[in-house]
Amino acid sequence: MTKETGIKLGAKQLSLACRMLSPILKSCRCTPGYHSILFARAGSAVALSAFDGATALTLTFTLNGPESPEKGEPFRVAAETFCDWAQKLPDDEEMEITPQRGKVLVANGDKSIRAAFLRVEADMTISPALEEERVFAGVPASRLSAALAACAPCREVDIAPTPLSHLAIAVPSTHDLKLVATDGRRLGLCNIRLDTDAGDDFELRLGPQLLVPRAGFSALRRILTSDVCAHAKVSLSRLGSVGFLFSIDSTAFHARLFSPAVTMQFPSYEPVIPRAEDMAGAATVEADVLRSVLRRVECFSNTLSGALDLECTPDGLRLGAADAEHGESSEVIPTITTFPEPMRRTINIQYLLDAVASVDGHVSLAFPGALEKPIHLSAQLPGTAESDTFDCYIMGMRR
Questions:
Q1: Strand partners for 363
Q2: Cys-Cys link to 377, which of 61, 71, 212, 392 (CB 3.0-4.6 A)?
């Protein structure tokens, strides 16, 4: 048996790993061993992994100094207290993690910082070793992160897993990557267009859509929003019928996120999307102005219904809310409108706030002629190419 040796890792790297692994750890099943972090070393690389019984995330850090031939036995540490403690360490410390019988010791060089954590004895497969079939590669992390942020509010938040708690990813063409999320009351659709003429170095392959479960979605967002991933590239591969694998190469680590295949059927959302001829007109406003007005009007919206009155007229877009306890508010935003006559709808104000929270520049609000059709908001994703768009469809309310 290989002698167990300590692993040296910077406190900053240790804290970063705990933050990245936390979405997986929080979704762990109530099975002994799952709420733990697996440490493994091979040469000059150290890998930290978490597994919730379905989704797995492995972060690999390259250590400074000459490569070592040592390869210690992997070991697990109970995660809850360890992660809380590790994220409060001074960034400039180097910590040594040493497994012992029944415990794992962590200390800095002069032992002025020292702690012992419960060692977890469990044998679990992190992710299957299967042949990878590439779905896409070379997608900039910043653009994918912006799309995930826009789609996030549109997912069902109930604990029980349903098709509405997943994110759908599709490759409708060799230049387009599409992300879709819905909670049954609103639909978020992001399109990332990649173009070799614009200098993008990417690969997209057509195929059926994939569903990303809640834990995988949260972990992917946490990784991509990290500062160290600002210039990272993201790849996605299928692992047969078992699941799929995200790979993210950043300046700080290499991440591999495994998610199992989802057998649930994603809702058929295409019939919900109104056609161009269904629209009675549209109003174009600045995203910043709309956000500011919505936040003020929200103070007067009913806490139970969240009703917001929208009225488009040739003079502009009027937003209003009223509540017996708070009073009422009404504001008009000058807009570029294409309405032959005034159009009024009532929607949930939080849905509209969520939709404009993740966009930049001009926002277009298109109103359908039929009450049963949703309002269509379209805008550009922030900090991305002009071709990266977000479309949100919000069902109206009956007053």
A1: 285
A2: 392
